[in-house]
Write a structure and sequence with these properties.
It is a single chain. With 378 residues, this protein is an alpha/beta fold. The chain folds into three domains: 3-63 and 88-151 and 253-303, 3-Layer(bba) Sandwich (FAD/NAD(P)-binding domain); 157-245, 2-Layer Sandwich (Alpha-Beta Plaits); 309-377. The protein is built from ten helices and 17 strands. The strands form three sheets. Strands 1, 2, 8, 9, 10, 11 and 17 form a seven-stranded mixed sheet that branches. Helix 1 (13-25) packs parallel to helix 2 (91-102) and helix 1 crosses helix 5 (281-295). The longest helix is centred in the C-terminal third of the chain and has 15 residues, at 281-295. The protein is globular, with a radius of gyration of 21 Å.
């Protein structure tokens, strides 16, 4: 039975970023690493967007915006997100970039197989695929098990679910220098619903109809709303270049409690998604750096996670939207209508001081958040 130092079950963003950070650390030359996934990661299956003030992955960033827009049924506002830029990376570009780095290292291997089980025994781990088994010292699991979140009631679970169309229109209606961060002018129908628009030219854009809610919709419900929005923009002729869809869990469930000494859950499987927004890319880049640094000083994965104040803020936010999903537009509008956009993004990046936290939190509707606070505390 083949033995490795590290096995990654699943090669999602968290796994690839962790391996990439291991490569950058220059401290894995004496380690053997195996990545296992049934998907070879050769297609453009998703788009990652994030705000950033550095040159993070500049070489594969397909588009940047210095300006963003926020809108609801009553107002539209240009957001000054200085010192940040809003950036977009296509999934296939990131996969190609990281697998190219991996190919330079003879101690890192990829196996295109489906993982069916993994377990820990004594001081080793066993990973099973459909045809073979492998042993290792450490398992990094990024295969998300949705039942973990749904089979409990203490930590509410919302879904960030969406369908997106990348279109090319006859009419030049888009401002290619401004991304629409959230447009709540679409019908809410008792949920938190908005349109997300990322223009790459005057007549090309990615439009995503997005919900933060408990339940998914039929495919036609998403696509009908995208069609209506396109018409509202004044577009009469267009072609769909590409489609994407996704469903991101939004919960403060403590996934890290399932970590053991030699098995760690990463990505959505480890609670690495930002619960209050569903944004993943920036969180994963931070967590992967922290995890690789942790491995240099400790070998017990049960000690890796550290809960902070932002986890509690996210918990209250999810509690509020879970109990009253219709007020999502009001919550976000309260933040962005009068708040400083750069500070809000800094808060969502979990980099604010307590004083800055208070400045942001005071923009939120007070009664539902106070109820959620006292519900959790008492």
């Amino acid at each position: 039975m083949q033995h490795y130092n590290y096995i990654f079950t699943g090669t999602g963003l968290a796994a690839l970023m962790t391996v990439y950070e291991m490569i950058l650390s220059h401290k894995i030359e004496d380690k053997t690493i195996l990545l296992i996934d049934s998907d070879a990661k050769k297609t453009n299956d998703r788009t990652w967007c994030f705000w950033d003030e550095t040159s993070l992955f500049e070489e594969i960033t397909s588009k940047k915006w210095k300006n963003t827009l926020f809108a609801n049924q009553n107002f539209k506002k240009n957001l000054n997100i200085d010192p940040y830029q809003y950036k977009m990376i296509h999934g296939v570009d990131l996969y190609e970039f990281i697998f190219n780095e991996i190919s330079k290292h003879q101690n890192i291997y990829f196996l295109q197989k489906k993982v069916i089980d993994f377990s820990e025994f004594e001081n080793q781990c066993l990973v099973k695929t459909e045809h073979n088994s492998y042993t290792c010292n450490k398992v990094f699991n990024s295969i998300y098990n949705p039942s973990i979140g749904t089979l409990q009631k203490k930590y509410p679970l919302l879904q960030q679910h969406f369908i997106g169309w990348f279109i090319k229109s006859k009419e030049s209606v888009f401002d290619e220098n401004a991304a629409t961060f959230m447009d709540f002018s679409v019908k809410q129908d008792g949920n938190t619903r908005f349109m997300y628009v990322l223009p790459t030219s005057k007549n090309e854009a990615l439009l995503e109809y997005t919900l933060f809610s408990k339940d998914l919709l039929s495919k036609s419900a998403y696509e009908n709303e995208i069609e209506s929005y396109i018409k509202k923009l004044g577009i009469t002729e267009y072609e769909i270049i590409e489609k994407e869809q996704g469903n991101i869990p939004m919960t403060c469930y403590p996934f890290w409690k399932h970590n053991s000494k030699n098995i760690i859950h990463i990505g959505s499987a480890g609670g690495w998604t930002k619960a209050s927004t569903g944004f993943t890319f920036k969180n994963v880049t931070k967590k992967s750096k922290q995890l690789v640094a942790f491995l240099e000083i400790d070998s017990d994965f049960t000690k890796f996670h550290k809960k902070n104040k932002f986890w509690f803020y996210d918990l209250l936010f999810i509690d509020v939207l879970y109990k009253n999903n219709a007020i999502g537009s009001k919550v976000f509008s309260g933040l962005f209508e009068k708040g400083k956009s750069g500070l809000i993004l800094k808060f969502l990046d979990e980099e604010t001081s307590l004083f800055e936290d208070i400045k942001v939190i005071l923009k939120c509707p007070k009664i539902p958040f106070m109820k959620a606070f006292f519900g959790r505390v008492f």
